[in-house]
Design a protein that fits this description.
This protein is an alpha/beta fold and about 210 residues long. The chain is built from six helices and nine strands. The chain has a single domain, classed as Vaccinia Virus protein VP39 (Rossmann fold), CATH 3.40.50.150. Helix content is about 30%, strand content about 25%. The strands form two sheets. The chain has a seven-stranded mixed β-sheet with strand order 5-4-3-6-7-8-9. Helix 1 packs antiparallel against helix 2 and helix 2 packs across helix 4. The radius of gyration is 16 Å and the shape is globular. It starts with a helix and ends in a 10-residue tail after the last strand. The model has no long low-confidence stretch (mean pLDDT about 95). The chain binds S-adenosyl-L-homocysteine. The site of S-adenosyl-L-homocysteine has 23 residues, from strand 2, helix 4 and strand 4.
């Protein structure tokens, strides 16, 4: 599959839909216009790539809805060269959006099949996260902590303590919390022991699963 003029046109329309839904961050919108989402999905589903919809990928997982990706990325309030930990690499689409926003990204995936597939895909496409890790995102990544930003792209029954502890003071953690439905939640670390919590609307994610090993 290729990226064509037509695909770019569809991405411009998608960005407009996201603007109409309230996304304002110009770097985020630029990333949406730039990242060829159709290449992150299995071929044959191209027609779905630029609708504002989630879509199945390998291993019973989903590529998040573009609005959700834009909403979470906007909440991060990224500036260039920040270190970001992403939990739930999945298709790698969110990772690519973070990279386009000039973040240094560490990303963790617990499904071996997806980890391998997406890791290869990044190489093929020339996307360069700092590290793609096969492991359990509940534990975060202590060896690379603390992070400026942490983003969780699967629904967590509660916020993992390890992730809060791996956030820099002044840092932001964006995580969907809940079982059947999730509330998008922002934690800002204001001091060593204090966090400010803000809740946004409800979303639907595949579950963040504990390590099965
Ligand atoms: N960011 C992805 C969203 C994928 S869906 C994208 O844009 O495509 C969420 C992903 O989180 C799935 O791939 C799932 O396997 C992964 N996941 C679930 N629990 C996890 C955990 N404990 N650690 C790391 N990844 C996890």
């Amino acid at each position: 599959m290729k990226d064509t003029f037509k695909h770019r046109g569809m991405r411009n329309q998608l960005a407009q839909i996201l603007i109409d839904k309230g996304i304002k961050d110009t770097a985020v919108l630029e990333a949406i216009r730039d990242v060829p989402r159709h290449l992150f999905m299995d071929s044959g589903f191209e027609g779905h790539a630029y609708l504002d919809k989630a879509f199945p990928i390998a291993a019973d997982q989903t590529i998040s809805q573009p609005y959700t990706v834009a909403f979470q990325t906007e909440l991060l309030e990224l500036t260039p060269r920040m270190t970001v930990l992403e939990i739930g690499t999945g298709s790698g689409y969110q990772t690519a959006v973070l990279l386009k926003c000039k973040a240094k990204v560490y990303t963790i995936e617990r499904q071996l099949e997806l980890f391998k597939k997406t890791n290869l895909f990044f190489k093929k496409m020339g996307y360069r996260p700092k590290k793609v890790i096969f492991g359990d995102g509940y534990k975060g990544l202590p060896e690379a902590a603390p992070f400026d930003r942490i983003i969780v792209t699967a629904g967590a029954p509660e916020v993992p303590k390890a992730l809060l502890s791996q956030l820099k003071i002044g840092g932001r953690l964006v995580i969907p919390v809940g079982f059947k439905e999730q509330i998008m939640t922002l934690y800002q670390r204001t001091s060593d022991k204090e966090f400010e919590k803000t809740e946004y609307g409800s979303f639907r994610f595949v579950p963040l699963l504990e390590d099965k090993n």
